[in-house]
Amino acid sequence: MAVAARRLPRYREEVIWWDRIKIPLFYAVLIGWTIVCITPFWLSLVYSLMPKEHVFDMPPKLWPHPFSLDNYRVVVTTFELFPRWLLNSTLIAVVVTIVRTIFCAMGGYAFARLRFPGRNLLFILMLASMMIPPQVTLVPNYLIIAKVFHLLDNLLAVILPGITTAFGVFMMTQFYKSIPVELEEAALIDGANRFQIFFRIILPISRAALITLALFTFQGSWNEFMWPLIVLQTPENFTLPLGLKWFQSEYYTLYSIVLAGSLFNSLPIIIIFFVFQRYFIRSIAVTGLKGV
Amino acid sequence: MSPRLRRKLGEWLTAYVFLSPYLFVFGTFTVFAVGFAFYLSFTKYNLFSPPKWIGFANYTRLLQDEDFIKHALPNTLKYVAVVVPVQTVISLIVAFALDQEIKFRRLFRTLFYVPSVTSSVVISLIFMWMFNKVGAVNSLLKMLGLPSHIDWLNNIHTALPTIMAVNIWSTIGTMMIIFLAALQDIPVTYYEAAMIDGANRFQIFRYITVPLLRPVIFFVVTMGLIGCFQVFDQIYVMTAGGPLGSTLTIAYLIYKNAFQSTTPRMGYASAMAFVLAVMIFVATMLQRRIIETEPYE
Amino acid sequence: MSERKFLTLVTLLILASLLATACATPTPQVVKETVVVTKEVPVEVTKMVTKVVTKEVEKVVTKEVEKPRIEVRLSGWTASPEEENLLRASLYEFSLQNPDIIVKYEPITADYWPKIKTMVASGTEPDIYYMDIFQFPFFAQQEVLLPLDDFMSKSGVKKEDFIESLINAFTYNGKVYGIPKDFNTLALFYNKKMFDEAGLDYPTDDWTWDDLKAAAKALSKPEENIYGFGVPPDAGRFPIFVFQNGGRIMTEDFSDTMLDSPEAIEAAEFYTSFRKEGIGAIPSDVGVDWQGTGFGQGSLAMVLEGGWLVPYLKNQFPDVEFDAVTPPAGPKGEGNLVFTVAYVISKNCKNPEAAWKVIEYLTGLENQTKVLHSGFALPTRKALLDDPYLKENTVAAAIFRGAEFATPFMWGLYGSDVNEEMRKALERIYLEDVSPEEAMKDAAKKLREIFKGG
Q1: What is the complex's ipTM, to 2 decimals?
Q2: How far apart are CA A251 and CA C78, in angstroms?
Q3: Domain boundary among A68, A102, A125
C-alpha cells in the first residue's frame, strides 16, 4: 500500500501519514495481544519455578527468583505410578487422535459431498446431539460402558466413545464444503471411485483441516477429565490429569505444585503445536493440482 | 438395474460406509443416553430409587424456579450475546492478519495459541489471582488513577463480565486456528485475481474471504453457541455461580441439581438440559439462515 | 511417503495401540500369591516399615498359597500424598494379618460424590467407601448401605468405644451404618505474633463473644487491609454461632429449618457485625479464596478452621506462629460443628464379612493410634482421649475438646440446599446490605419451598 501511496501524489496528507504508521501500528497491536495472551501462562511458569512458600509473592514477579525446580520434582517423584499415568495418557491420546481424525474426516466427507437418504436428518440429529449438556448424559453413558461393554476400569472405556465425535464430523463437513469440488469431479470423470478419491485426493488436500482436528483431538483427549474419572478406578489405570488431581486434597491446595503439574501436563500439547504449526501454510492449490 | 440407479445405490452405500464409525458411536451411546435423559426429564429421579413418572411437572417447575428464571436464564443469554460475537469477530480478524505475509508469523501464531493450551485450572487460578481485590488488575488500575477497589469476582455487577472476558481470552486461540486452517484452503488464485482488480485488503477480506469461509464461520459460531450456552468449567472453578447467583448459568444449575444436591434431582436437571438444548437449537438454526445463505439441500 | 504406505503405517499404529491398551488392562488376579501381595498394596512410607514388612511377606506367602483370596474394593477421596501413604501402609499391614483378603484401593481424586452416586446408581460401587456425615442421611434413607450392628456384636466392637456424637451421627433408625474413621471440629486459630504486637493476651477456651469482638477490634488495621477475625459467608462456619446462641439450623427431625428463629437471626447479626464494623473480613476482602491463606499471610489474625489448616500452614507458611483454642462461648454457652467421615459397606457387597474385617482393622485401636500420631486426623475412639500426643499438641487437643459440644455438620436430605441458602443469606447481608432478619427469613422461606418440592 505504501507503494501505491507514492505513486498517487494526489492523496491527502493525512492518508500518507496513516500509511506510514499503519504497519508499526499493526505490529504494536499484534505485540499487545501477544502480551495479553502469554501473561497468565508466563506468570504460572514463573511461580511454578519458585519454592512453594513464594506462591503468594506480590507484586507479581516476572522472573523466577529464587529459582527452584522443587515443585516439578514433587510432581514427578511423589507417586511411583507417574510414568504409568503418562503412558496411559499417551496411549489414549495417540489412539484416539489417529482413529478419530480419520473417522471424522470420512464422516465429514460423506455429509459434505455424497447424496444419500437421511442425510439432512442425520446431520441435524448430529448437531442436536451436541446441544444436550453432557451433565445429563453422563449416567446413561456410564451404564452402557458398565453393563453393555463391561469396560469399567479399562482404558478402552475412554477410547471407545471417543473414536468419533459430532464435533469432529461437523468440523470436517464444514471444511470440505469450503473446498472447491473441481478436483474431485475431474477424478470422478477419470473413473476413480469415492474411496480412491477420498484417500488419494481429499485427505492430502485437507491437510490443514486434518492437522487442526488432530491437534484439537489430542488436546481434548489429553486433558479429558470427567469421563476418565468416572470410568477408571484403579490408580494403575489413571490418566495424567486424574493422577495430578491427587495434589489437590479435599481441604486445601498447594498452588505451586498444582501449577507445576498443570504446566507439565500442557507441555506435550505445546510441543506438538509447535511442531505441526508448519503445516499451516498455503499449499492446497499446489498440492491439489499435483494430485490430479 | 439401470447404471444410474446402480451409481446412486453405490453412492448411498459409500456414504453409509464412510459414516459407519460415527453411526456406531451415535447408535450405541448418543441415542440411548439422550433418549434416557429425555425419559428422565418426565420423572422424579434421585439416582438411587427407580425413576417415578411425573409428566410435565419438571418443566412447569422450571417456570417457578427463581434460580432459573431470575439468574441462570438471563445470565446465560447475556453470556451468549456478548461472548459469541466478540470471540468470533476477533478470532476471524486475528486469523486474517496472521494469514498475511507478516514477519514472525509463526511465532505470533504459536503465542496466540498459548491461551488454548493453558489448562483451564491454571487459567482460573491465575485469573482469580489477577482479579482479586489486591491483585494485578487493581494494581494496574491504581497506577492509571482509576477506581481500584473492585472485588471483581465477588461483586454482582462485575463477576459475570469478568468470566466473559476470561472465556473470550481463552477461546480466541482455538477459533483462530480453525479460521487459519480454513484460510489455507482458499486457493491463492482467488486473491490474485482480486488484487489484479485493485481490491484493497479490507475489500478482499469482506468480499472474498468471508463469503468463502461461510461454512467454517457457521461451524465456529455453532460451536461458540454450544460452548457459551453450556458454559460450566470456569464458573465451577472461579465463582460456583456466586456471588448471589450473578454468575449462575443453566449448565451450572444442571450440574448442581444433578450431582451437587445431597438428594440428586436428575429428572429436573434433565428437563433443564432439554430446555437448554432447544434454545441452542433455535439459535443455531437462526444463525445458519444468516450465515450459510446457500441452503443445505 | 506414498498414500498406501502411509495408510499401512496408520493401520499398524492403530492395531499396535489397541493391542497395547488391551494388554495394559489388568486381568483378574489369579496369579502367584507373592506377586499379588506386593503388587496390590505397595508401601513407600518409611524405609523402616518396608523392611519389617518384606520379611513377613515371605512367611505369610508360604503358608497361605492354596487359600482363595477375597477381593474387597475400597474407595475414598484423596488427601495429601503423605496421608495417602499412611492409609496404604495400614492396608498393607492388614493384608499381612489377613492373607485371604485383598484390598483393592480405588481412590477418587476429584468429584467424589458425583462419581460415587453414579456408581451406586448402576450398582458398581466399591464394597467399602468413605461416607461424609453431610451426605449420610440420603444414603441411609435410600437403603444402599449395609447395617453393621451384627458384625459389631460378633466381633465385639461396641458403640461405646467411639465418641458418642460421631457414632450416633451414623446411626439411622436405630442401626449403625458407618464406623467413623476420623473427625474435625472448628477451633479458633490465632496468630501469636499479631497478638503480641497488639499487646493482647492469647485467647483461651473460656473466651466469650465479647472477648472475641474486643480482640478483633484491637487487632484490626483496615487501612493496611488487616482484620481481626475471618467471617466468611460459609455454611461450615456460621452455624456454630447459632448453636452458641441456643438456636438450631434444622428441627430435630430435619423436616424444617430454623434459620428464621430469633436465635439464628441474632447469631447472623453478631456474625456479620464484624465486617460491618471493619474488624472482620471475608476471604475476598483480603484477596484470597480461602481464609486459611489470609491467616497465613497475616491479614486475618483469627480464623475458625479445622485441623486441615495445620498441614497447609506447615507447607505454605512455615514461619507463621499460631495456636488454637475452642471457639468462644455465646450467650447460651458453647457450640461447635463436627465434621466426620465413616467407612460404610455397600448393600451390594458380595463379601460383607471380609469388608467388615477391613473396617474393623482400620478403625481399630492400633491403627487409630497410628493415625493420631501421624498428625493427619483425629481418631474416633474414646480410649485415645488421654493419649500423650494430645497433651503435646495443643491444636489437636483444642479440636478434640471441641467435639464435646459439637453438632454434626448435617442438615438432612436437602443439606446442600440449606448450605446454599445460608451462604446466600450471609452474602446478601454483606454485599446487598439486606438486614439479617430479612435475609434469614427469605432463606427459610426458600428452603421450605424446596422441602415441599423435593
Answers
A1: 0.88
A2: 10
A3: A68
